[in-house]
Automatic annotation (TrEMBL):
Protein name, per record: L-aspartate dehydrogenase
Misc: The iminoaspartate product is unstable in aqueous solution and can decompose to oxaloacetate and ammonia.
Reaction(s) catalysed by this chain's protein: L-aspartate + NADP(+) + H2O = oxaloacetate + NH4(+) + NADPH + H(+); L-aspartate + NAD(+) + H2O = oxaloacetate + NH4(+) + NADH + H(+)
Keywords linked to the UniProt accession: NAD, NADP, Oxidoreductase, Pyridine nucleotide biosynthesis
Keyword Transferase: no
GO biological process assignments: NAD+ biosynthetic process
Gene name linked to the record: nadX
Its EC number(s): 1.4.1.21
Start and end residues of each Aspartate/homoserine dehydrogenase NAD-binding domain: 15-126
């Protein structure tokens, strides 16, 4: 008896930076390598897109997604790319996976993308990114949640070039310093590069305005840390993760790429985990 063969999952990638390059490397070495096909890569500057997969088309316009018969379009190109490519991706593929979740703090954009997804019969997928425990938080939200707190703790150097420089003496810290406490929406607006991930926990739990975010600079750590806590009708949750940066881009975490690989692998693997 022969097993029924499934056609390869057709994937379009938006962005060809450190995250998507790492995703392609990991998929090529994984057990699902033969079950996925990188069909297209969307970029802003094609002259800078080097070493793309041999059979992939290079795209510069969202309308070029049409006719490619894509199953998933996965974005890892920064917040502006979500608005630029999102609607076309949702119309031309079964799912649009977003890693730059901070873009969805824009309520008008989120509602527009959800409306397009509903009309097209596709899905807007927010990956778990650099976080742990998002599956449990999302499950817990089926019952009333009383509180969700997301603390983002990073070395002082990680906060350079942000408003944190005006709030704490980053170069002189000798102990952890909390410099922001507020909503996930406000954190994502004021610290788009560093608090982008707070939108993920907010959408999984009690929303952008009720999720409380604390930002901390800690001279005693070398890795980016997320501490997620919640309580409600389900009980209590407390999760901490310390992320190693991507070798090719220290501003991105290894886990951001790994979460995207997991999402793609689960789409074709006989065991979804």
């Amino acid at each position: 008896m022969t097993a029924r063969r499934r056609k390869p999952l057709r994937i379009g990638l938006i962005g060809w930076g450190a995250i998507n390059r790492h995703v392609v490397r990991l998929l090529s070495r994984s057990v699902v390598a033969e079950a996925v096909s990188i069909v297209a890569i969307g970029v802003r500057s094609p002259e800078r897109a080097q070493d793309i997969p041999a059979d992939a088309s290079l795209l510069t316009d969202p309308q070029q997604l049409a006719g490619l018969d894509l199953d998933i379009v996965a974005e890892a190109a920064g917040q502006p790319a979500v608005a630029l490519w999102g609607e076309s991706a949702l119309r031309q593929a079964g799912a649009f996976a977003v890693t730059s979740a901070g873009a969805l703090a824009d309520t008008a954009l989120l509602e527009r993308l959800m409306s397009v997804a509903e009309a097209a019969g596709s899905q807007l997928v927010v990956t778990s990114g650099a976080l742990a425990g998002i599956d449990a938080l999302a499950a817990a939200s089926a019952l009333p949640l009383d509180e969700v707190v997301h603390a983002i703790v990073k070395p002082p150097a990680a906060w350079r070039g942000t408003p944190a420089e005006r709030l704490v003496p980053l170069d002189a810290l000798t102990a952890p310093a909390s410099f922001f406490i507020g909503s996930a929406r406000e954190a994502a607006r004021r610290f788009p590069q560093n608090a982008n991930v707070a939108v993920i926990s907010a959408l999984a739990g009690i929303g952008l305005d009720r999720t409380r975010v604390e930002l901390i600079a800690d001279p005693g750590i070398a890795e980016n840390c997320h501490r997620l806590s919640a309580h409600g009708a389900f009980g209590r949750l407390s999760v901490t993760i310390e992320n190693r940066p991507l070798a090719d881009n220290p501003k991105s975490s290894e886990m951001a790429a790994l979460s995207l690989v997991r999402m793609i692998s689960n789409s074709v693997s006989p065991l979804c985990r």
